[in-house]
Amino acid sequence: MTFTAEAGLEMIEAGRLLRKVNLQFLLNIEIGNLTLGSAACCQTKDSLDAVEFGQVNSYVTAVKWVTPSGALEEASEHKNPELLPLIRASYGLAGIVYEVTLRIKPLEIIRFDYEIMKIAELTQAHVSGVIASNQCMVCWTVDDDVVIQTRNGASELRHEWLADSRRFGWSFLGAFAGRVGRGLASGTPVSNLVEEIGFGVEIGFYRLISRLGGFTLHGPDKMVDYSKTPRVGRYAFTFWAFPREEWVKNLKDYLTFRDEHFRRHGFRCNMPLGSYFVKKDTSSLLSYTYEGDVISLDPIHAPGGVDKDAWDRFLREFNAWAHQRGGIPLLNQSPFVTRAHVVSAYGHRWKELCDWVRTGDPDRRMLNEFFQDLVV
Ligand SMILES: Cc1cc2nc3c(=O)[nH]c(=O)nc-3n(C[C@H](O)[C@H](O)[C@H](O)COP(=O)(O)OP(=O)(O)OC[C@H]3O[C@@H](n4cnc5c(N)ncnc54)[C@H](O)[C@@H]3O)c2cc1C
Q1: Are 11 and 33 in contact (CB under 8 A)?
Q2: 357 vs 320: CA distance, rounded Å
Q3: Shared-domain flag, residues 141 and 85
Q4: Rounded to whole angstroms, how far apart are CA atoms 67 and 45?
Q5: CA-CA-CA-CA torsion for 182, 188, 194, 196, nearest 10 degrees?
Q6: N or C: which end of the chain has fewer CB within 10 A?
Q7: Number of domains comprising the chain
Q8: What is the pLDDT of residues 273-307, one digit of tens each?
Q9: Which residue, 106, 140, 166, sits at the end of a domain?
């Protein structure tokens, strides 16, 4: 039960091929356009298929790559298994991945349910209860409400048309509405009101799904294809992970940070804040759940011409706030990440990875400007 392909294949295309024979990946990541090569050697996160692990490369059982000296190398559960945690964390620094093998399983139906509550009423005990009684959980903060989305197995399709609405929301509508609302109302006296109405409509949609009793879909249908999304429907985000048991406190403190930032700079995100629950996992040397379960804080925003600089300033201030609280950034998903952030989040594991890639690439052929600023 494995799938082997060239590294340039996108997850969504691979998923379509598997589906034809009633099979699927164990983790059908939201970003269907992720290539297998990137999936094998970069950091990822998913909370709605994360029954066992929430990082795609934890399901990678074999990788083949061309080293910086031009040799062919491979690591698998049977050959050089000690290299698997390293190559899963290598970001291309150890060479170019050309073939990837991932675990697969029979096609499954899954169910999404939604619970909406005021953040002021949210407790860590409630979150622990949700985690204990469901397979997976992800949360969306819209203004001062939190939407707790859970995932479990199901035996038949019900309200599956809602899965299409969900995909449309993520691949176009959410970012489009946020960006257009900001563009039209920005700087006018009604701008706040327009955004509050937008948040209200969004929560109303989640309440409707919740009242309908959620919906079911085939596992691979949760992947979103962004390849045809026009610029006006695209969004950006950042990701910092925190220990699971501190999440509610972190979330409430984040709201204070968010509101204070808005008061000082007049900027706030126009899309929900995501919070991914991902379980402890040591499969990759750079697993951000190496030390234990995490729940993240991911501000999401659709920047436009009017607020691109304000979004960048927000990201930098959020980085400083998250770093100070012991957060863990992802190298490919936390814009403006610095060496100090990476060193305090990954410590000796970052050093071990840097030492390993330096041994295989003494002339630094694979080192680009981005990593030049991060390596130790
Ligand atoms: C709209 C949107 C939604 C997203 N949603 C999610 C999500 O739900 N979950 C999630 O985890 N991430 C998400 N992401 C982030 C995404 O996973 C990362 O940006 C990912 O790295 C992109 O993969 P890619 O295949 O486009 O890689 P690229 O951007 O092409 O490559 C990223 C890096 O991977 C390395 N690399 C790629 N291919 C190879 C190879 N063959 N050999 C060696 N190194 C290689 C290189 O270092 C390269 O710089 C999202 C991004 C966007 C824009």
Answers
A1: yes
A2: 28
A3: no
A4: 27
A5: 90
A6: N
A7: 2
A8: 999 999 999 999 999 999 999 999 999 999 998 89
A9: 106
How many CB atoms lie under 10 A from the CB of residue 9?
16
Please tell me the predicted confidence (pLDDT) of residue 289: 98
What spacing in Å lies between the alpha carbon of 124 and ligand 1's midpoint?
Answer: 32
- Give the integer Cα–Cα distance in Å for 375 and 211: 50
CATH number at residue 22: 3.30.465.10
Is 313 domain-assigned? yes
- Structure tokens of 65? 């790559």
Question: What does the pLDDT look like over 4-16, one tens digit per residue?
Answer: 999 999 999 999 9
Which residue range(s) make up the domain with 317?
109-329
Of 332, 365, 370, 374, the one to substitute when testing ligand 1's pocket (max ligand atoms within 8 A of C-beta) is: 332
337 falls within a domain = no
11: in domain: yes
Does an H or E element contain 74, and which? strand 72-76
User: What is the longest distance spanned by two Cα atoms in the chain?
Assistant: 64
328 token code pair: 């863990």
pLDDT at position 285: 98
> Are the C-beta atoms of 273 and 250 separated by less than 8 Å?
no
Binding-site residues, ligand 1, Cβ < 6 A: 7, 29-31, 34-35, 37-38, 41-42, 44-46, 91-92, 96-97, 226, 235, 332-333
Tell me how far apart the alpha carbons of residues 84 and 101 are, in angstroms, rounded to a whole number.
12
3-state secondary structure 5-25: EECCCEHHHHHHHHHCCCEEE
Q: 354 lies in a domain?
A: no
Instruction: Give the HSE-up count for residue 2: Cα atoms under 13 Å, Cβ half-sphere.
Output: 13
Q: What's the CA gap between 121 and 99, in Å, rounded?
A: 48
As given in the structure block, the two tokens for residue 262 are: 């808005």
Half-sphere exposure of 342 (CA within 13 A, CB side): 24
Distance from C-alpha of 275 to C-alpha of 298, rounded to nearest angstrom: 6
Q: What pLDDT, in 10s, does the model give residues 25-48?
A: 999 999 999 999 999 999 999 999
Cα dihedral 12, 134, 299, 317 in deg (nearest 10): -130
Q: What is the residue-averaged pLDDT of the chain? A: 96
CA 210 → CA 50, 52, 122, 138, 146, distances in Å? 21, 25, 18, 15, 13
Amino acid at 265: H
- CA 43 to ligand 1: nearest atom: 11
